[in-house]
Design a protein that fits this description.
Layout: E1 8-11, H1 15-25, E2 31-35, H2 61-76, E3 84-93, E4 104-105, E5 117-126, H3 128-141, E6 145-148, H4 154-158, E7 163-166, H5 172-175, E8 182-192, E9 199-202, E10 208-214, E11 218-224, E12 226-227, H6 236-249, E13 258-268, E14 273-279, E15 282-288, H7 294-310, E16 317-318
Helix pairs in contact: 1-3, 1-7, 2-7
């Protein structure tokens, strides 16, 4: 893409904005992403990024978006350099629960002490720094480009292009403004991989749970959820609690060297906002509020965004 006026301005360069940008650029539109932070500095870069499973009923829009993404990431796992790989692992609970359709129940010997139920599943795991670089390459190959700048007004941007997509995540709280968006803090510990190939996740999620996701050279340990906590500094006490919970499940992690502590703020909202509105002369699609499911929903929401933005769904409502 040259310096001609863009067809579409996408605000935000996390996994949601980048995926939307790729979808639109590969349709032949001139795409410009506006962002204050490089993709490597977004919350997406520190996501644990397990995609699926989809347990939502087929007629629920969220389930449809999840299944689109699961199919896309399953295909990407076959392409070198994407950072996506299919991994087998256990989805567990400390309380007995119903069977999960399509998943193989764990035998009692497969469950650590203190866990009452579990299921085996094979799902895409995404190494986010590698994957974000892959999306950037794909965006540039399709002619898209990125402009690093502060964005203070959607209406101001709407004068620069006829189509606009708001993928600002937590930033939508001030930019829209949308007071229903709130931060939920997550902290991870990154350690050397002592030979693990299977993931482990405890559900349901509360303020703290046990989870680890193995990658070729490292393991991501989690997880935590601090509602309305915007502290970006890692808490060493919390980090040690995360380590110990994971060691209790997988003793091989005990002597794994700690590489880093990471913190991200999940952009949580009562429901994902994915809707079309008129912003002056521009058509604007809002695509934000994915909470901790941004990667899992990214491709489904991007395809839906592209359809809303370029389709003929009737006149959108005027923004107030």
């Amino acid at each position: 893409m040259n310096d001609a006026r863009p067809d579409v301005l996408v605000v935000g360069a996390g996994v949601i904005g980048l995926t939307v940008g790729v979808c639109l650029a590969e349709q032949g539109l001139r795409v410009l992403l506006c962002t204050r932070s490089a993709p490597s500095a977004t919350t997406s870069a520190v996501a644990s990024a397990m995609v699926g499973p989809s347990l939502v009923p087929a007629d629920d829009p969220v389930g449809g978006r999840e299944r689109v993404s699961i199919a896309e990431f399953t295909g990407l796992a076959e392409i070198e350099g994407t950072g996506v790989a299919l991994r087998r692992g256990r989805l567990t609970s400390r309380q007995p629960g119903p069977s999960l359709p399509g998943l193989q129940p764990c035998a009692p010997r497969d469950l650590p002490d203190g866990f009452a139920a579990g299921f085996w599943s094979t799902l895409p795991l995404v190494d986010m720094p590698i994957y974000l670089r892959y999306l950037l390459r794909r965006l540039h190959a399709a002619g898209g480009r990125i402009e690093y700048r502060e964005v203070h007004s959607l209406r101001e941007l709407a004068r620069r292009a006829p189509l606009l997509v708001n993928c600002t995540g937590l930033g939508a709280r001030e930019l829209v403004p949308d007071p229903t968006v709130r931060p939920v803090r997550g902290q991870h510990v990154i350690v050397d991989n002592p030979g693990l190939e299977e993931f482990f996740i405890e559900a349901p999620f509360g303020t703290a749970w046990t989870a680890y996701w193995p990658y070729p050279g490292h393991v991501v340990l989690g997880g935590t959820a601090g509602d309305n906590d915007e502290t970006l500094e890692p808490d060493p006490v919390l980090g040690e609690q995360i380590r110990q919970r994971c060691i209790d499940v997988e003793p091989r992690l005990r002597h794994a060297r700690v590489r880093a502590h990471q913190v991200g703020l999940r952009p949580v909202r009562p429901a994902v906002r994915l809707e079309l509105q008129q912003l002056g002369a521009a058509r604007c699609v809002h695509n934000y509020g994915h909470g901790g499911s941004g990667v899992t929903l990214s491709w489904g929401c991007a395809r839906e965004t592209a359809g809303l933005l370029t389709g003929t769904d009737g006149p959108p409502a005027e923004l107030g």
